[in-house]
Write a structure and sequence with these properties.
mainly alpha; 81% helix; elongated; APEM9
Length: 54
């Protein structure tokens, strides 16, 4: 049960992070590559959590 809750929390947090990153308007001072890396990492966490949850 504890492990399942951890995956549910990981899925929730990564989804929230993805949503915020995709809806945010970044100015020119923000490194676009870094934002793309954060989106990619959040997506990988979300997919892994969903995979583990079944």
């Amino acid at each position: 049960y504890l492990v399942s809750c951890m995956f549910e929390e990981a899925a929730s947090l990564s989804y929230s992070t993805l949503k915020r990153l995709c809806n945010c308007k970044f100015d020119e001072s923000v490194d676009k590559d870094m934002v793309e890396d954060m989106i990619e990492c959040s997506g990988m966490v979300l997919l892994q959590a969903y995979k583990e949850l079944g």
